[in-house]
Specification:
The protein is 57% helix and 0% strand. The relative contact order is 0.09. By secondary structure, it is an all-alpha fold.
Length: 110
Amino acid sequence: SKAVAKEYTLFEEGQRLPSIYKKRAVKEIKEIPDQVSAHLESLRRWLKSMPHLKCPTDDAFLLAFLRQAKYNHLKAQRRLDNFCTFRTSTTEGYPDWFIDGEKRNKLWEN
């Protein structure tokens, strides 16, 4: 019988992260589990104060910016501002496939 490849996902909801990765997150990106929700709420408050920035505010989306910036809010805010500005630019970063999930999926399937 032929082995079936498991589809790759970044994480599986409901599955706990192994402790080795939690320790690496603390050491390498300064992610302290008890403070993550406070960081997310702080970033959401900042986004509300910036009405010109339109982007998702779910945990996974915002965590990507916080983690990349190693929880440095100024860096995360700057990157998020750049991302939103580029994405909403009518001449640069607003391609149809970014918004239309069906078009995006078709492009990625090829």
